[in-house]
Model the fold of this input.
Amino acid sequence: MARNTIRTYLRHAETLGFSDTTSDERLSEIAASIIRSVHGDEVKHSEPGACAPLLPHHELLSGWLENDKLTLTKAHIKLGRMGVVVTYSTLYRYAREALGFGGQKVTVRMADTLPGEVAQVDFGKMGMVFDPETGRSRVLHALIVTLVLSRHQYVYLTHRQDFPALITGMEEAWEFFAGVTRRVILDNMKVAVLKADRYEPVFNRTFQDYSQHRGFIIDSTVVRHPEGKGTVENQVRYVRENFFKGEEFKNRDHAQQEAVKWCRSIAGLRIHGTTRKRPFLVFEQEEQKTLLPLSDERFDVPAFASCTVHRDHHIMFKKGGYSLPTKYIGKEVDVRGDSALVRIYYQNQLIRTHGKVAAGKRSTNFDDYPKDKSAYAMRDVEYYKRKAAENGEKQGEFMATMLSGDVPWAFIRQAQKLLRINDKYGAARVEVACQRALAFGLMNVSRVEGIIKQALDKQQTQSKPAGTVTQLSSARFCRPADYFSHKENDHGDNNGIETASEGTAPLFATDHPA
Done:
């Protein structure tokens, strides 16, 4: 029977004078009275033949109860809709006798586990505790890790049932036990099991990494089968009722300190209801020495993300910037970051590793930039000196002089311009201009370009003789001089074009090709 049903019976029995000293005759009277008061006319013995209306629906009832897993109450309602009128007790009796419904389940007791073999893990809700970070009360959960053989346990308190809480709680539990079990049983919690399956569950990749780091095997229970981790399942209520309830904790940290003390002094030294032994003593005498050794290095919980490479060659991960080569701009990459390193993958291939930076900072590998831009980004003065010297001796001298001050970065853009004007005017002209600028101490690239332009203008002027008339490239619009005479003929037309005055020579030859 359900617990609430039993509580209802007991409340009615107490009002009728039930106690430990009640006689058997009186108990029968009380029981009959309770049945009448609780169920009224609903419970009554079926008359002979009352089950007859159910016989034609035997297969239908069997399918509802066995295949569809409907409750008997729901089956009673559906029968009523079909016009099959029977009492619930009649349906119950028929289901028990003809379909084997409601009988006691046959169970088998599992063999005892070996020392240090199995630990069971489960989350459970405790209650409300003040959180100084948010300034309000928040729900506090407990991650309970219980050793199956000894029943010794550790309680880790957290406001969140996320992956970091799971890993941190298990790490503290292994430190508490000074060792690791060979197998860990847990239910299909989302933070650890991505896909629940009786035979081939899919686990969180990071949780698998963690199990390999500590050396235990993951064993997830069957879906909706709490008996698979019954040892820790029963402890959730015990921890809530015995440790948390009725206490006043300042915050989560205060509650955690008290939880560790409680695990050692109260839960660990009580007489366990099943084993009838003290868990801590069994753990100390039989189990602790069989646990897997615990390394000093804690598992570094990583974080995963998918990021897009921006035009500035960087991705943003945990509010920090990390550079990648130009060819990955606009593409999506996978990122795995822990407390020390950030690893970046493209199509499952590792393409770059950076040291982790704080939020708002950047980690830039200048080799990721194009060669013509990396020098500016790095403020590489020597690069500009080297490139200028390759174009000419005087250019190298000019560049070295210009970038020799205390703040050479202020002249980086001028250095870029000096390299560019080589493409525009040629290295020879720039070389001569730099020589002239050095002679006069003109350490400005714009002045160098001005020298080149002046030389080009002078050269063009000297190449043309004085008074030379330049022939137009096309003369198709040219007209003879008499074309512009407006003397009209008798018809009012100006077809007869005459010169404005006799003897005036035309501006253009009449035999011009135009």
Q: What stands out?
A: Residues 482 and 503 are 11 Å apart (CA to CA). Residues 41-46, 489-514 have pLDDT under 50 and may be disordered. The longest strand covers residues 118-131. The domain at 118-290 is CATH 3.30.420.10 (Nucleotidyltransferase; domain 5).
